[in-house]
Amino acid sequence: VQLQASGGGLVQAGGSLRLSCAASGRTFSRHHIGWFRQAPGKEREFVAAITWGGGSPYYSDSMKGRFTISRDNTKNTVSLQMNSLKPEDTAIYYCAYRTSSTWSTRAYEYRIWGQGTLVTVSS
User: Fold this and answer.
1) CA angle at residue 96 from 108 to 106, to 5 degrees?
2) How far is CA 45 from the centre of its chain?
3) Cα separation, 23 vs 79, whole angstroms
4) Is residue 75 predicted with pLDDT exceeding 90?
5) Is the N end or the C end of the chain the one with fewer CB atoms within 10 Å?
6) Using one digit for the tens of pLDDT, what is the confidence trace for 14-59?
7) Measuring CA to CA, which residue among 103, 86, 2, 123 is closest to residue 46?
């Protein structure tokens, strides 16, 4: 499996962005796709995840209500809709693939990673 993240950019506080993660290769509907982020000088942080089949979304408590993860079957992608963005959301956002049907928020339990896309939120 290979992942390609896209959609990052510069946005003002309060604005929105939609990130996409395209997967190629042998994927399974019960495996999980997660979004993580890493700000400068900070550890990688879980954002949200969903099964590749589009079920069972789960979120970090701090993003719940502002971010929505979803599966686009027509485009074979997983998207992260980010609303009400704050300067502290500035980070590189990564999508990652977990070859398991159980959920996880731990980065080390995701074996395959995309290259990351930069999100910058200005105040």
Assistant:
1) 30
2) 10
3) 11
4) no
5) C
6) 999 999 999 999 888 899 999 999 999 999 999 999 998 888 899 9
7) 103
Beta-bridged to residue 28, according to DSSP, are: none
User: If DSSP codes are grouped into helix, strand and coil, which group holds residue 21?
Assistant: strand
d(CA 48, CA 60): 6
Strand boundaries in the chain, DSSP class E: 2-6, 9-12, 17-24, 32-38, 45-51, 58-59, 67-72, 77-82, 91-98, 112-113, 117-122
Q: Buried (b) or exposed (e) across 84-109, using 16+ Cβ within 10 A?
A: ebeeebbbbbbbbbbeeeeebbebee
- CB within 8 Å of 76: residues ≥ 6 apart: 22, 23
